[in-house]
Specification:
The chain is mainly α. It contains 5 helices and 2 strands.
Length: 160
């Protein structure tokens, strides 16, 4: 019924299968290591080209730099402080003062938008609409003064 055990360990067929499995695993590991080494030696791709920045009257302007950002930041802080002190309506006079003094398009745009938001708070849509119309007129005037280029035409090329 039972055969006596004459040897200990796996059978010869099993040993052959284990050797094949071991050889396969080692060859896969060597191939993967070689592939990773070749991949590491490849030169890196060039960094992606950034999207062009907004080109307004002053050319491309990176965000969050310069005096116009400082003015806008000061206006936001003043609005916050007026609101915390219980006098949120006082900021409207500051926005009007900035609009009277500033000729910077970014600062004026911010002041117009903030002024319109403040005028909408007590539900005065006609004043907010009038403010946005004034901003629109300035933007259209500035857009009409900006030189327009045809596709394929260089910016410094003479106009025909």
């Amino acid at each position: 019924m039972y055969e006596p055990i004459t040897s200990f360990g796996p059978s010869p067929e099993r040993k052959s299968a284990m050797k094949k499995t071991l050889i396969l695993a080692v060859s896969i590991a060597v191939t993967a290591a070689a592939s990773l080494q070749v991949r590491a030696e490849e030169p890196h791709a060039p960094p992606p080209v950034r999207a062009p920045l907004f080109a307004g009257d002053l050319g491309p302007v990176p965000p969050f730099h310069g005096p116009d950002f400082d003015v806008i930041n000061d206006l936001e802080q003043l609005r916050r402080l007026y609101s915390l002190s219980g006098r949120p309506g006082d900021i409207v006079a500051v926005y009007h003062e900035v609009l009277d003094k500033s000729r910077n398009p970014a600062v004026r745009r911010f002041a117009y938008d903030a002024l319109a938001r403040e005028q909408l708070k007590p539900s005065d849509p006609s004043a907010a609409i009038a403010t946005l119309h004034a901003s629109l007129e300035e933007d259209v005037d500035r857009a009409n003064k900006t030189p327009h280029f045809e596709p394929g035409q260089k910016q410094n090329a003479a106009h025909p």
